[in-house]
Amino acid sequence: MMPMEVPKLLDDCRRRLAEREALERQTGRIDTVDPVSLEERDYRRTKLWQKIRRRVFARDGKTCRRCGGSATIVHHVTYDPPVMRGEDDSKLVALCEGCHTIVPFLPSGERRGLAEAECALADLDLNDLIPLAAMSVPFKGLRYSVAWKLSVTPRHPATWNRMTDVQSKAWQAEDSRCRAEWFARYREYRDETETAAARRSR
């Protein structure tokens, strides 16, 4: 091999290695690496993490350990090596999306300290107050198709991402009731308006 060919060969090896790593990330085949050394994005693609996640959901009955709603996320209380390697599930808890936002983060978006986050797991007083669901769109000049769309389109308050599963379900039920009541009133208003217009045209 000529000395001039060595840099080209090294470049080819680096390129192939980068392509292989990219393929492993895409297909989730990164299970031969120590999970502690992986970035979180790559760690969550491993078969080990999928196995741990199923195990924690089964243990917790897919119920949020904080609010009792439906859990969709497994939260790491710590990222210690035994936890990451699946040797200690005691520091993993099933949470709903809202609780998973409340536990590690303050309302300002800053990350809580470890001790404060552990306290937040049990402290439901940290939950944001649920804003009142209400429909206040005026009827005048509102077309029927627009009103109908407004009545069937769910809306989310600004605090949605910090609402627990229990809170968000309660808010959605109240929002649906408010939208149905508003649409019923709109139909009454529309009927009265059309009746009055018909009388005037006689």
Task: Explain what the structure shows.
With 202 residues, the chain is mainly α. The chain has helices at residues 5-27, 40-43, 47-60, 81-84, 97-102, 114-120, 144-152, 165-201; strands at residues 73-76, 92-95. Strands 1-2 form a two-stranded antiparallel sheet. The model has no long low-confidence stretch (mean pLDDT 82).
Q: What fraction of residues sit in β-strands?
A: under 5%
Distance between the termini: 102 Å
The portion of residues assigned to helices is: 40-55%
β-strand number: 2
Helix/strand class: mainly alpha
Q: What is the arithmetic mean of pLDDT? A: 82
Radius of gyration: 27 Å
Following the backbone from N to C, one meets helices and strands in this order, namely: HHHEHEHHHH
Largest sheet report: 2 strands, antiparallel
Spans of at least 5 consecutive residues with low confidence: none
Overall 3D shape: elongated
How many separate structural domains? Answer: 2
Q: What is the count of helical runs?
A: 8
Strands in their spatial order, largest beta sheet: 1-2
Q: What would the keywords be for this entry?
A:
mainly alpha; two-stranded antiparallel sheet; 8 helices; 51% helix; 4% strand
List the helices and strands and how they pair.
Blueprint: H1 5-27, H2 40-43, H3 47-60, E1 73-76, H4 81-84, E2 92-95, H5 97-102, H6 114-120, H7 144-152, H8 165-201
Antiparallel strand pairs: 1-2
Helix pairs in contact: 7-8
